[in-house]
Description:
The complex is a heterodimer.
Chain A: E1 4-5, E2 12-17, E3 23-28, E4 32-38, E5 45-52, E6 58-63, E7 70-76, E8 81-86, E9 94-99, E10 106-111, E11 119-125, E12 129-135, E13 145-151, E14 171-175, E15 180-182, H1 201-206, E16 209-219, E17 222-229, E18 237-241, E19 249-254, E20 265-271, E21 276-284, E22 315-324, E23 331-336, E24 342-347, E25 351-357, E26 363-370, E27 378-379
Antiparallel strand pairs in A: 2-3, 3-4, 4-5, 6-7, 7-8, 8-9, 10-11, 11-12, 12-13, 14-16, 15-16, 16-17, 17-18, 19-20, 20-21, 21-22, 23-24, 24-25, 25-26
Chain B: H1 19-22, H2 61-78, E1 82-85, H3 96-101, E2 104-109, E3 116-123, E4 140-145, H4 153-172, H5 186-204, H6 207-223, H7 231-242, H8 248-255, H9 266-275, H10 279-287, H11 296-310, H12 318-336, H13 342-355, H14 359-365, H15 369-379, H16 387-397, H17 405-414, H18 418-428, H19 430-442, H20 447-453, H21 460-473, H22 479-488, H23 493-502, H24 510-523, H25 526-542, H26 546-555, H27 559-576, H28 583-588, H29 597-618, H30 621-632, H31 639-649, H32 663-678, H33 680-699, H34 717-738
Antiparallel strand pairs in B: 2-3, 3-4
Helix pairs in contact in B: 2-18, 4-5, 5-6, 6-7, 6-17, 6-19, 7-15, 9-10, 9-13, 10-11, 11-12, 11-13, 12-13, 15-16, 17-18, 18-19, 19-21, 21-22, 21-23, 22-23, 24-25, 25-26, 26-27, 27-29, 29-30, 30-31, 31-33, 31-34, 32-34
GO molecular function (chain A): structural molecule activity
Protein name (chain A): WD40-repeat-containing domain protein
Main location (chain A): membrane
Amino acid sequence: xxxxxxxxxxxxxxxxxxHYGRLLATCSSDQCIKVFTREFPSAEWTLQSxxxxxxxxxxxxxxxxxxxxxxxxxxxxxxxVRVHSSVDNGHTFTxxxxxxxSGGPVHHVVFARFGGHGLKLACIGTDGVVxxxxxxxxxxxxxxxxxxxxxxxxxxxxxxxxxxxDLQGDFAVDWCPSGTVRASGLTYxxxxxxxxxxxxxxxxLTIAERAVEQFVVSSMSKVIVFRKLDxxxxxxxxxxxLAGHTDIVxxxxxxxxxxxxxxxxxxxxxxxxxxVRIFKLTPQRTGTRTTESRNxxxxxxxxDNENGVGENNLSYEVELVDQFDDHKSEVWKVxxxxxxxxxxSSGDDGRxxxxxxxxxxxxxxxxxxxxEQGSNDEMED
Amino acid sequence: xxxxxxxxxxxxxxxxFSPSFGGPRPIFSTARHVGETxxxxxxGAPKLFSSPxxxxxxxxxxxxxxxxxxxxxxxxxxxxxxxxxxxxAPIVAGRLQDWxxxxxxxxxxxxxxxxxxxxxxxxxxxxxxDQVPVVPEEMKIYPAxxxxxxxxxxxxxxVKDSYELYRxxxxxxxIGRPIDPSENNLPKYATTFLQMLDAARRRIFDERxxxxxxxxxxxxxxxxxxxxxxxxxxLMEWLNxxxxxxxxxxxxxxxxxxxxxxxxxxxxxxxxxxxxxxxFQCSNCLKEAGxxxxxxxxxxxxxxxxxxxxxxxxxxxxxxxxxxxxxRAITFxxxxxxxxxxxxxxxxxxxxxxxxxxNDTILALSESWQEATAALFLFHDxxxxxxxxxxxxxxxxxxxxxxxxxxxxxxxxIAGDIPKALSVAERLDVCVAAHMADFCDRQRMLDDxxxxxxxxxxxFRDWLFMAHAINCCxxxxxWFIGAAYLRDTxxxxxxxxxxxxxxHVYLDSERTLTExxxxxxxxxxxxEAQQIVIxxxxxxxxxxQFGSAxxxxxxxxxGHEIRAIAWQLLESSLLNGLTLPDSILQQYLPSPQLCPVxxxxxxxxxxxxxxxxxxxxxxNIVDAAQYLASLIQFSYLPGRFFGALLGELIPxxxxxxPRALPTAELIAIMNCLYQWEKDAGKRAEGIQFLxxxxxxxxxxxxxxxxxxRIEYPNIAAQDxxxxxxxxxxxxxxRAYLEGE
Lengths: 381, 740
């Protein structure tokens, strides 16, 4: 497939696909968003609409799940998140809401991908605060409720609470794709074994599922999972920390757990230190709910209190399962395929590297797509 | 170093990348660069791993892990990762460092379902710090596919054909059931699969698919041979196809000579034909050799040789007749040892030794481990249990070339290490590997592997099918095939992937929708079915197919969405004027009894408005007024619509017309107005929406003649409310004056 001239007048900072991968939106420093439609089966992208969406650089954008209609959120250096809606299959978009709670440029915005817990988006910017907005009535997109906000990494922010422009920083957020979690521990004490092969498969698939909303957020070099159980009874709380990054984390991506039958979750990070890291989060037996239990060390979990095991909490055992420094330079983006079995990473080496899960779950190099000419069908030097 | 047009802040313009301005070589390429598709068309084989094949033991799950992971560690060390250039790759070869100096980076994102993502170039200083001018290549997006995952049209045909065969086999066979030889359909299906694969690789011209064919053929020859042939014959047939010797040219060169027997390569040709089990060709060579016999013993020996060759036992008779035939060859060897013609004696002794299965002779005359193994198997003792022994002897003389993937796969098969062979085949083509595993699983060849090694991992067959199914799901037009494979796997992974992907399948038609809903129903994916129907209804709404959207939402009992749509219809009508509804709504609106209950319940406000507008259009003022009055008094009317509906009252309060509303209705409306104004929130919403309606009038060019806003082009929303209140009071006084 050929390259496509987007028509942007400046650098492109982010792209987003709609739920079907049929629409592609791009955003740029030219303050515009452009939406392309994919033709099938030719897989060519054709420009469908273009509109000025912000008053400054647009850094990130995200499509909402399709059951809420065709909705696009974008965030910008103008310190706002804006929500745009289309009622004509993406030919035109209308701004329906402006969310301006951020104290600085907003770097990253992403809609929750699961549909069960309502229309929600998370964003983070240079103020280091992760915010979650909720459209309580999705039929009225003008109304968004700031459901949650928290400083992710207080220690690393400047005293005024906003990262200075000359201090290089980066921030990213991604939702767990599933609105549920499956864990053997959730059936603990109920006389049910999720892995019991005698149980019908469909029962095994759903028996230990529990509603959960969680996202992973990076602020500078800190990466933390936030979680809320059971659809809104509690607030999001910082839970696991994905430790080991020695420099600014550029991107985070939460994989679908479908490829492993929901047995565990995978989160990938792209870091300025040149490493792509893959963390495995395995659900653990539940502990008594605590309000502040993260202890901030690598691979530790909250609430896993053997002396007070209850049923209300969920925790993960965190393990760094793989890490790659093949880029030999800064890594800026990580992205998973739909089943969580293929990871892509890209960075300063001008290459997209693909990794795939082997039989045992470890990741191996699959191939490289290079932006440098003359790289065809050759072994990398 | 480079010359650019104005900077990013003033637009991109054209960059001048000519060498005269741009230094020795530009970083970016403006010339079209033809990249390679990384999919099934690519060629080139990555280096293979070191392997424990030669040990002859079967792989364990740890070995499989070792294979996959170890190989890539080697890749890392040797940098042997397959690389392809993006189409129109923007960085000129060798100028990566210069590109990096521009403070640029490459970003890439995969799509939700398909295997083709998009890469783009971004700056590294986001917050206004980027002063490097932007060039056109930085305003493009570059599609990039996951290597080895994209299906060409021809490959898609192979995928579909192999699925059909799999389905047919599944319908006649049951995995795990003890195989009754008389009912064993596997060889028949294996032959068909191999033919399909052969046709596909010839159509596609793909090196790796051809290698996969070699491995698959080897497996099927070794374990799924037609009952009419022995494994030894099938293996030799595989070898003769994979590595044909002697070549047609070699045979022709010698046999078309005036006196073939005098050609230097004559006996070599004869021995090679014999080694390859090509007995009739071998016999013909001897007959056509033009030998001038020195004595009758020589002539008799030659006749015996051709007789032995022509009576070699074949197929089902081979096992019974082999021992007797071999005894003839042994006797023949003793006989020819006494011949006086040295040249003839040497040639026939070697031939006799081949036919009697002499290890040293066969190994000495072989050129590869495959040839040696197949020949020992064919001539020494064709009992399948001895194949591994022959393989071990052969690889001592001819080590396996592990840098050729297909050779490694075949070696694993012949060594009896099926899991290893499958994992090697997976590197060539996961579709072929999955089907190979399926045949092995049906023959219960993987039982030991599952029982001992896999612990809590999914069965290897299932894992391969999942990998193939994921590729199917990621390619246009094969999602349903992927889902069918996933449904057939054990464990919950397959179902999880279906559940994850099913809502991502683009709803291009109602048929796709119903097929997806059928799967949801079968697998009890209720939430996903709801999501799919809601997404479909949204699509229908965007196509103005409101009736269809409502009916689908009714089918899942989603009153919330139906209500939202009903209000959306009313809002749209108040804003843009009443337009002709789609055919389904046209049927429902005048005849509410035809509506499903849920739709009837929520569509009522819009239906009343629809009736009001129709009566108004037809001049039935009284009826129109009754409908509008009842809508204004509707208890659950959202406050935002109240102001616009008040506006609709204006033409009905025209004193030039007969009175349309009775006193009681007028009082009730005034009361509603009072209540609405009392609620500051509702009033603000209503005024805001009314303003939008009024401004829409100013921009619209095609309002209906009876639209009340035409007469008040510049009125403010607040004034509309005042005007209506005033008109209501006047109408009320008129009612008192005129009496009921």
